[in-house]
Write a structure and sequence with these properties.
The protein is about 50% helix and about 15% strand. The longest helix has 26 residues. The chain is an alpha/beta fold. The mean pLDDT is about 90. It folds into two domains: about 100 residues, Spore Coat Polysaccharide Biosynthesis Protein SpsA, Chain A (Alpha-Beta Complex); about 260 residues, no CATH class.
Length: about 425
């Protein structure tokens, strides 16, 4: 039974069509209310449209496909280019040689779903798809899922660094802790995937470029954080690396919340606050410089010529410098910082709930934005770094995966037109 949401189409290849199929095309356009003619030759489509109009005084909608596209794959993407797109619209292919009518499933963006682990899959299944389309859909999902796994590993998962290098960090300086070693190792993994992940090369290249911009703000020496004039490492008196680290922890908080890992989420939002406020105190009297203890000199984080090993002096310092002691968000942060000591990740056995972690997060973000404004931050804003980094690290699979599939099949180059 025909439905008002049914659309019929025929595919024509080459530069000419015999008389018999032309007559069947005219009959099909007359029979069906909505009819699309698909081909990769604008000359042939125009010729057939004019022939049909001369025969029955009606015209098909013409869809011109890229000459690089395989037409038998394009027919699975008509919904993407159709002028009256409808999620429930069905597309029936009419064979102009036999008159046989076949329902052709459409590869729709909304059909790509994610599971609890943020892995994307094609919900209707790949049955009924052209074998080439099936292969590309499966490969695009697999490549996206591998990149997502690496991003999750970067934010809240396992280290990318070898054990020996991890052990060496026990004697590392506070300056060395600002070098984003894990991000560098993550970048190495991504670079190795570029020649293999052909469907996502464009997205991987963009992600690698963004990661390199983050690495570019790492201070190469303590003097990079002490210069008066702006540098790659220092903008408006604020060391950029602390904002990058804060943003990465905030993204980790969001990812942990989505996975119901509330203890991880809480600790990440705490670190997001700690990193940002540690950087903000460079606007007052914080420095990184050589500090000698037991005959060993290391570049250390200092306030008032005292090496800082805990967060309490930073928290008190930020409250005093920005006059936040009576600020509601500052007091909320103080409450949760104190409560943190009772959690099972620290000195107690209780675990934070989602609501507690989210309330702390809201206070932290309001604090960060308030300090950004009070500190007259104009370049390398925390919000901008967050937006750009989230865009590159946490992709929307309903956009990225279908776009990669259409790009691979040249199905994105579909042009609908009416012949005058």
């Amino acid at each position: 039974m025909k439905s008002s949401k049914d659309t019929y189409f025929a595919v024509v290849e080459g530069d000419a069509l015999a008389l018999g199929p032309r007559e069947l095309l005219s009959a099909a356009v007359l029979e069906y209310e909505e009819f699309i003619l698909v081909g990769d030759s604008e000359r042939l489509l125009t010729d057939l449209s004019q022939y049909v109009h001369a025969t029955i005084a009606a015209r098909p909608i013409c869809v011109l496909a890229s000459s690089n596209a395989l037409l038998l794959t394009v027919e699975h993407f008509l919904d993407h280019a159709y002028l009256h797109e409808d999620a429930n619209r069905r597309f029936f292919k009419v064979c102009l040689d036999t008159g046989e009518v076949t329902l052709v499933p459409q590869v729709r963006d909304a059909s790509f779903k994610t599971d609890a682990n943020l892995h994307v899959y094609y919900e209707p299944g790949v049955q009924g798809l052209h074998p080439v389309v099936k292969s590309v859909v499966e490969a695009a999902c697999a490549q996206h899922n591998e990149v997502t796994k690496l991003v999750c590993r970067l934010l809240i998962g396992y280290s990318f660094l070898p054990d020996q290098q991890l052990k060496s960090k026990s004697a590392g300086s506070d300056l060395d802790a600002l070098q984003l070693h894990e991000l560098q190792a993550f970048l190495g993994h991504l670079t190795g995937l570029v020649p293999i992940f052909t469907l996502l090369q464009e997205e991987l290249t963009d992600l690698i470029t963004h990661c390199n911009t983050l690495l570019a703000v790492c201070p190469s020496s303590a003097s990079d954080l002490a210069n008066i004039q702006a540098t790659a490492a220092l903008q408006n008196g604020f060391p950029c690396i602390y904002k990058v680290m804060s943003v990465l922890h905030y993204l980790a908080y969001q990812l942990a919340i989505e996975r119901n890992l509330f203890s991880k989420a809480f600790m990440h939002i705490f670190r997001a606050y700690e990193c940002y406020t540690s950087g903000a105190l460079f606007l007052d009297n914080a420095t990184i410089r050589l500090h000698t203890k037991s005959g060993t000199s290391l570049d250390s984080y200092m306030i008032n010529n005292q090496r800082i090993l805990g967060f309490t002096p930073v928290f008190k310092g930020i409250g005093t410098y920005f006059n936040l002691e009576q600020n509601a968000d500052y007091l909320t942060c103080k409450f949760y910082i104190d409560l943190r000591n009772k959690f099972h990740y620290t000195h107690g056995d209780v675990k934070p709930s989602a609501s507690l972690a989210n309330e702390f997060a809201r206070a932290v973000i309001r604090q960060i934005l308030k300090i950004e404004k009070a500190a007259n931050q104009q370049n390398f804003l925390w919000r901008d770094v967050y937006m750009q980094t989230r865009k590159h690290l946490i992709k929307d699979p309903q956009w990225e995966v279908p776009a990669a599939i259409r790009r691979a099949l040249q199905a994105h180059q579909l042009t609908s037109f009416m012949v005058p």
